[in-house]
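Q: I'm a student working through a structural biology exercise. My instructor gave each of us a protein and asked us to get a predicted structure, then write a short paragraph describing it. Mine is Amino acid adenylation domain-containing protein. I'm not confident about reading structure output yet, so if you can add a plain explanation after the tokens, that would really help. Here is the sequence I was given:
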Amino acid sequence: MSNSEQDAAVAPRTPERPAAPPGASCHALRVRLAAGPPADGPAARFAALAAALPAATGSAAVLPGTARLWTERVPCRADAPAAERWRARELARPLPAHRDAPVRAVLLHYADGVTDLIVVARRAALDTAALYAFTAYLLGEATDVALTAATPPAAEPAEYAPGAQPDWGLGRPHGPQAPETRLLPLSADHPETDAGSWATALGVVLARYEGVGRPEFAALVADAGASAERIAPVPVAADGGRTLGTVDKELRTALAAGETRPGPTAAAGPGSAAVVGLVFADRDPAAGLPGAVLAEYRPFQLPPFPVTVTVTRDAAGERVLRCDHSPRTLSADIADQLLRHVCQVHRTLAEAPDTLVADVRPWDAEEADRLAAHRRTAPLPPFAPRRIDTAVAAVAAARPDAVAVCFEDTRLTYGELDRRADRLAHALRALGVAGKDRVGVCLERSAELIVALLAVLKAGATYVPMDPAHPEDRLAYTTSDAGLTTVLTDRADFPGGGTIRVLSPAELEERAPERCDGPPPSETGADDPAYVIYTSGSTGRPKGCVIPHVNVLSLMAATTDDFALGEDDTWTLFHSSAFDFSVWEIWGCLLTGGRLVVVPYWVSRSPEDFHRLLREERVSVLSQTPSAFAHLVEVERDGADPAPVRLVVFGGEGLDPRMLLPWFDRHPETECRVVNMYGITETTVHVTAQTVTRAEALTGSKSVGHALPGWWVRVADPEGRPLPAGVAGEIHVGGAGVAAHYLNKPELTEQRFLTDPRTGERLYRSGDKGRLLPDGRLEHLGRLDSQVKLRGFRIELDEIRSVLLDDPQVTAAAVVLNRADPEDAATAQLDAYVVMDGDDTASVRQRATRFLPEYMVPSTVTALDRMPLTTNGKLDTRRLPGPATAPRPATAPRPAAATTTAPQDAASGGDTFEEVLLDVWREVLGVPVGPDDNFFDLGGNSLLAMRVGAALRRRGGHTVAMRDLYLRPTIRQLAAHRAG
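A: Happy to help. First, here is the predicted structure for Amino acid adenylation domain-containing protein. I'll explain a few features afterward.
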């Protein structure tokens, strides 16, 4: 084998770009003749001119006889629909790529004596000016024709990329590929046009759409000093500090000097093609054709770019802005929007060239009003004027004997709930709790929890919920930061002491009066705080979010009628009171007179038990994170009877609606409404609502719907300027749900809670990425910062990193959220990377458990010599190695009894319980498993624990209660417990 052959054998193959269709490089001209075809032989003229042109195959000239003028007899009048179709067909018929002829002409003779001449040419052989000159010569209107030099034509446009989809296009990935055309007629007073000004306008619009200061698009440009046209990328320096006039001047200079860099070649591979292209064809179609009655110029037969913006004129000579695209690339609404915005920026450039790019508004006043705030207004009574506790008291007065709260064997009527809360409120006052004080509530889900929360509100105070499962350090910090002097808890080791009074609900009950006539008097109003919920903080410590009563009441006013919430509904309290989803569950139920079923903790961890509870209690309103709901769907897919719910509300994390298809099979949309709601703690649980149907599930829609009545949303760029539909940016939320502030954090409050300069209203910068759809619905696209959502919990990665860096062994740390399977939320886990003295990563993780809630403790800790950095000195997450598995304890000799005494089961083919567990854990965790390995140290989590239960259920006979798995997290321990 020769050296060259060897090189060819090992050289990587360059990916081939799809060849542009012939029509992408052809343009066409139609001329209506005033007096029929000229009598002096246009066919001979055509043959002579065509022979002087370069051949399409690259030979020096067209071979004789390969180019000819055709004549067609059209058997109908020129104004007949059939004639229009005939003309359209000829105008759109491209020149075959394998033929030498670079030009084709046809004379159409209609039955009424009218004649059209249609000339189709490759642009590389005849540019626009030459095509007009060629046609005029055929008509006998010119005697000298300056044609493009007779050299082999350029290749087909290398920029053609039919699959390209801009992020802002809102195209349908599986829509038709055939191009569509949208037109925007330019008004008579629109400024005069030229190629440079339109290129500037398009570049400025793309800068706003793509969030970059120097966007690049393609354009059909003329080489300086030559008549040939070519396609070349055009970079536009559209930085916000420049004026439109400056941008335009620089662009014109570059175009005139031919300084646009050459376009990518076919060898550049996929991805190097321009998505948006500009074609300037603004000339009177009949110019230079004095014998023509009318003329129609088509700058291309098929659009040369995925998104082709053309400045042209129609057959009547009126100026038109045109966008050609496929539905896969742009939606029709976005295509119309793009044309409007380019037109508006072009007008601004002509009329106010000193306008800074940052100040340019591509939209008119009407569209600006829509972008400033997509809102749905609605009155907010009957809840808004009151406090939460007085509204609940009104329900209790109307229905005192109706059951309000259920927990295991406990049943509390509204009257009992109200009276018990009144008594505890008096007890709190007797202990010195004054109006607007903050009271800590650290209780497991139970009936006592609901009574305690309501009692704090009746005392005029603010409740601060804490999860008993949180580590002592986090509880101590929350207690200190919130300035608590009283905490209600059953946790024996709650970090109290000093001036902090720690009581159990029973102890508070002992201090309560036997009877009381209503709650103690209070001056607390609807605008005063009802609760403070602490969320993960980027500074390394949680931050308290202060929510007034009126926000919760407004939430219920906005949703009650739409969701048909009422006294016939039964709700569940599934989530921790320290998670703001519980606000919706507790007060949503009690404010509308429903029955609240409090789900015991271990029942919430067992999909089978939870599903059984739904059926036994006839639950109608269910609130779930998508991750938890997925396991409920699995239970029904395994054969359980359908749950009786009529309304499912999703929140807490993003929803992939495709997971709902099995649910819709068993719960028709006419019987169970499914609603996906986007929300934030700082905006009172929910902001938007999207009813999810089978159609949304099949398309995988990311829509979270319109803003609730009284709320509003918009999407803004980093400078706070509204962004148009389709363009991603930061979600801003305003209206009735915006929190009061962050507790004790005035600087953070100032950064995140802003005043809208346009309306004077308060708004919250969410840090979430999203985009608006043309109909005002919102798509949620994740986070812009280091915050993540894991199984419904909102987590600041910087908080975990801060805890790791406090470890004396650790000198550098990073935390990332990974998924072993991108399509499976249950495989999501937090992985930490540290640079440390030594290699005892187990002790680093163990220390983190003292300061972080279980859901924030990294599943793995991997030691590195140094952190991989980008050229800008930032963490390069792409270069992080795969996470190390958690260190395992040395395996002790396996007792014979561990396998010999475990029960046998015929359904599992005689395998022991331990052997079945080993198989199931390996299947679920995807890693080697030993009998003494800790399930959670191997990457297990609550969702995977539920999956273990489902896998065992399918095998029949073998079961493991979720409580046992948490208390005995090794296979040997579980087997011993079962054997005992």
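A: Here are two points you could use in your paragraph. The chain has five domains: 22-138, 180-292+300-362, 388-767, 787-879, 897-979. The CA atoms of residues 182 and 323 lie 5 Å apart. It's a good idea to check both against the output above yourself.
Q: Great, thank you!
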